[in-house]
Every structure is written in structure tokens, then in C-alpha cells.
């Protein structure tokens, strides 16, 4: 499939916005404003797997300022991993990143990554209990459930289920759903840093509860999108459930990705059920990619034992040493339907 990465200029967006405004009856100023905000094209930014290591930590304030300078962004999403996999998961580090997140001038949606809780059992990470670290992340980054970090934007959450990080919202007839799905086989790998050789009962209970909540949110997102006649669905996760570097191992042993199986099945079922494009944005594997991992003929279909879902488009954002840019997504104006609701381009950081 050819790339959908397209350059949408500010001028074009302005012309579109003016045209839409001109077509609305001048009933009342507030009605016109509401109509314009729901009909105009808009952009949002996505980053992930950043900052990694001392050099990138030092650059992170500048990275945030570059994103802040993109004043047209409606919101920004960080798809997890606020540290590398070999550094300590300390309270002090979490507090430092939260203070940096507070400098975002756009609404910031954050979903935790495996480096900041799942893998914190590692000796060089501090040999923490990962579930304790997950609780701390929720305390530090999700202290006001239903509100984004940075500038405030209301979101629906699964706070009542104990997962305030799972959020969803709608912009311009596009349904967004951000869910806590983790690398490291969705947190099923043993906590070897704590001496474990198999998943513990408490670990399995957390995975089951979180996965059930994720499945519920995915299904609710699609159902609500269908009811509202939304134009597209955008899912965001930390985990790359189609990481090309894991394909050989997963082909030889599908249990290597067993933690993703139910989630992939739900995404396929819902994508095939609704007649609209679906986009999956993730981090985790650190290398920008744009593809259809569940299209007919994909080897991942055999790994997961599922039918094809040709309408699913996946975008992986750069991370780690490749995190030298953010991805700017453009949502077309409300009059645009079909496969080109979203377009995207990488925007380099200034340093």
C-alpha cells in the first residue's frame, strides 16, 4: 500500500476552515464557533520512547519547546517509555518527568510504557515490584483523572476500574482511544530481577484485569464511533504488537506474544465490523513504520490465528536514539470521508 504521509499546509487548512465557516448560516456567534471547531481540519502530535539516557534527558525540555511552538496542535500523545530499559525507576525520576510534562502548552495524553514499570524488576532498574511502580505512576501522572496533563482537555477514563490511564475522547468525528498495552508480552514475562522464573499470581491477576479493561474500552470506542457516525477510529498503545524484530520468534512460538492475542482479536473483529478506517499508533520498537500488519497475506495473521483486517493502518513513531522528531498527524476537515481521514509527517526537532 502506498504511503499516506502527506504534507498538509497551514494555508490549505485556513482555506478549508474559511470555506466551512462561509457555508454555515449566521444564526448566532456561539453556534458558528461551535460548528467551526467541529468541522475544521486539525493536527495532533505523537512522541514515544523519549527521553532515553542522560543526553536525551538534557535535550527533553528543548524537545517539548519545539512541540509547544507548533501552536496548531490540538493535543499531544506520549505513547510510553519515559526512560530507557537500564536505568533506575526512581520516584525522583518520575517527579522530574512529571515536571517536564507540566511545561507542555498543549493537552498531553500519556500512556505508561514497560520501561517505567513492567521491567523495573531488573537489578539495574532498582529491583522494584512492577505493580508497586505502576501504582506510583498512577499517583504521579494521573492524579486528576479525566483531565490531560499539560493544558486541560477532558477525557473519559476507566478510573472506576483502577485504570485512570485508559482514556478516550472524540475530535471532529474521529474517535480516539488510548489504552495501557505493554511491551514485554503485555507484562507476562517473569520478574527475573526478583528471582522469579514464571509469572506470579499477582502479576497474572493484574494482566487479566488490565486486559479485560482494555478489551472493554476498545469495544466501547468502536460502538460509540458507530453510533455517532464517526469517520475513523484511532487506537494508541505503547506496545508494538507487530514488532518486526519479534516476528521470527513469534512465528516459531506464538506464545511469545500471547499477552496480545485477545487484544489483536478484538481489534480485528471491531475493524471488520465497522465500515470506516482504523489507525493504530504505537511506540516500543523505536523505528518509524507505516504499514498494514493485519492485511491479507501478513505473517502476523498466522501468529495470532486471526482473519485479515485490511482497514487497519499502523504507524510506529521513532524512539530511543531515533527520537529526533515528533509525528504530526493531520485530521481532514469534516467534509472528508474515506481512507484519507488521517495523514502524517515526521517533524524534526531543532537539536
UniProtKB/TrEMBL annotation:
- The superkingdom listed in its UniProt entry is Bacteria
InterPro entries of this UniProt entry? Metallo-depent_PP-like (IPR029052)
Question: Looking at the keywords, is Signal present?
Answer: yes
Q: Which UniProt keywords apply?
A: Signal
| Span of the signal peptide | 1-28
Which named protein is this?
Calcineurin-like phosphoesterase domain-containing protein
Please give the organism.
Pseudarthrobacter humi
Amino acid at each position: 500500500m502506498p504511503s499516506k504521509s502527506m504534507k498538509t499546509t497551514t494555508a490549505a487548512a485556513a482555506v478549508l476552515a474559511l470555506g466551512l465557516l462561509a457555508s454555515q448560516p449566521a444564526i448566532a456567534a456561539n453556534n458558528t464557533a461551535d460548528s467551526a471547531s467541529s468541522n475544521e481540519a486539525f493536527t495532533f502530535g505523537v512522541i514515544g520512547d523519549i527521553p532515553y539516557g542522560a543526553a536525551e534527558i538534557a535535550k527533553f525540555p528543548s524537545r517539548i519547546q519545539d512541540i509547544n511552538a507548533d501552536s496548531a496542535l490540538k493535543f499531544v500523545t506520549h505513547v510510553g517509555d519515559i526512560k530507557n530499559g537500564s536505568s533506575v525507576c526512581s520516584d525522583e525520576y518520575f517527579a522530574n518527568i512529571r515536571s517536564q510534562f507540566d511545561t507542555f502548552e498543549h493537552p498531553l495524553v500519556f500512556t505508561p510504557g514497560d520501561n517505567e514499570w513492567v521491567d523495573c524488576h531488573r537489578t539495574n532498574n532498582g529491583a522494584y515490584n512492577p505493580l508497586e511502580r505502576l501504582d506510583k505512576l498512577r499517583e504521579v501522572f494521573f492524579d486528576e483523572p479525566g483531565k490531560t496533563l499539560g493544558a486541560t482537555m477532558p477525557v473519559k477514563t476507566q478510573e472506576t476500574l483502577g485504570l485512570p490511564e485508559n482514556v478516550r475522547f472524540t475530535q471532529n468525528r474521529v474517535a480516539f482511544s488510548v489504552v495501557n498495552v505493554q511491551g514485554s508480552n503485555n507484562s507476562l514475562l517473569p520478574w527475573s530481577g526478583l528471582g522469579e522464573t514464571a509469572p506470579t499470581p499477582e502479576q497474572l491477576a493484574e494482566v487479566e484485569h488490565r486486559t479485560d479493561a482494555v478489551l472493554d474500552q476498545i469495544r466501547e470506542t468502536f460502538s460509540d464511533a458507530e453510533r455517532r457516525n464517526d469517520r475513523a477510529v484511532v487506537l494508541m498503545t505503547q506496545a508494538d504488537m507487530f514488532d518486526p524484530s519479534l516476528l521470527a520468534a513469534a512465528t516459531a512460538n506464538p506464545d511469545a506474544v500471547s499477552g496480545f492475542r485477545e487484544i489483536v482479536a478484538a481489534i480485528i473483529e471491531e475493524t471488520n465490523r465497522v465500515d470506516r478506517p482504523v489507525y493504530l499508533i504505537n511506540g516500543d520498537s523505536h523505528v518509524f513504520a507505516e504499514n498494514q500488519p493485519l492485511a491479507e497475506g501478513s505473517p502476523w495473521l498466522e501468529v495470532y490465528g486471526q482473519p485479515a483486517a485490511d482497514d487497519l493502518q499502523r504507524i510506529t513513531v521513532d524512539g530511543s536514539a531515533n527520537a529526533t522528531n515528533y509525528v504530526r498527524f493531520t485530521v481532514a476537515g469534516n467534509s472528508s470521508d474515506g481512507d484519507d481521514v488521517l495523514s502524517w509527517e515526521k517533524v524534526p526537532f531543532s537539536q
